[in-house]
Amino acid sequence: MRLSKIVLAGAATVALSLSLGACSLSVNDAGSASPKASQAQGSDAGSTGAQGSTSTGNTGGTAGGATGSTGSNNPTGSPTGSGDHDGDDDDDAEDAPITNAAWKEILDKGERQTVSGSYAVQGSGSTLNLVGDLDMLTVQGAENTIAAEDVDTLIIQGSDVTVYARDIDHLQIQGSNVTVHWLGDDPDIQDLGADNTTGRLTQ
Asked: Is 86 within the bounds of a domain?
């Protein structure tokens, strides 16, 4: 009896130690598995976070860069006043076709002369088509009809003179019965004569 109790007690002790060993083993396995799992989850979370920040950074960079380059390359974003002269009357006058009948008649029938610098009309009864830009045009004769282009200073000393010009900067009239019309901006006018007509021509 005593021997069987001892054997039973020993067997119970062995069984208990074996079960405790198994428990500690499972605890160790669970413990070792848990850090590995947490590390794997942490690395997955880190890579997901990195991907999120990468995609956010790329998206932000791409969107910002595209918008910035579009804005900088947009020709309408540049100051329009620097290169666009559509609103300038002088530029319009240089390109505008002549539709006035009296002016067109001078262009068609007048004596065509290529001019530059300073030019003087001293004869009388002439019809002249002056082609070219002039610093100064002086009309001294009487009964002259003249078509000109860009004239910086127009001085008319004769009488019964008619002048059409695309653009005049300065106008001085010393004669009488003078008619001057232009297409561009209004010039500075000194009218020292009598019965003279000046004005911008609207075609």
From this structure: no
Q: Does residue 111 share a domain with residue 25?
A: no
User: Structural domain tally of the chain?
Assistant: 2
Residue 56 has pLDDT above 70, yes or no: no
- Per-residue pLDDT reduced to its tens digit, 70-113: 333 433 333 333 333 344 555 666 778 999 999 999 999 999 99
Q: How far is CA 183 from CA 26, 57, 110, 161, 203, in A?
A: 103, 59, 19, 18, 9
> Do 68 and 17 belong to one domain?
yes
- 155 close to 172: Cβ distance less than 8 angstroms: yes
* Cα-based angle 104, 106, 107 (whole degrees, multiple of 5): 65
In a domain, 173, yes or no: yes
Question: Is pLDDT at 43 greater than 50 in this prediction?
Answer: no
**DSSP assignment of 31-97:** HHHHHHHHHHHHHHHHHHHHHHHHHHHHHHHHHHHHHHHHHHH-GGGS-HHHH--TT-HHHHHHHPP
Euclidean distance between CA atoms 32 and 37, whole angstroms: 9
| Residue 100: DSSP 8-state | -
**Which residues form the domain of 167?**
99-200
pTM attached to this predicted model: 0.56
- Within a domain: residue 9? yes
Which tokens sit at 22?
Answer: 């198994």
**119 domain-assigned:** yes
